[in-house]
Amino acid sequence: MRHNVAVMARTEIITKTPQVLGGAPIFRNTRLPFQALLDYLEDGQTLDEFLDDFPTVTREAAVAALEEAKTTLVKHLG
Fold first, then answer.
1. How far is the C-alpha of 77 from the C-alpha of 60, rounded, in Å?
2. Residue 8 confidence (pLDDT) above 60
């Protein structure tokens, strides 16, 4: 599974387009903000609950997005 995450991260799971939700980071090919996933997790909900509520996002995409966010944060703080 780790290999799939690495492949997906390179294809930019999270995108930003000024015309979609004012340029907020969204899951590719959706109008769903990445922030929604972070909010779910922050509120104590599980990844499975998020995926049940937003079936347009795959588990692989959600995990890849979190990995991408982690990598970006670590680089920024480093």
1. 26
2. no
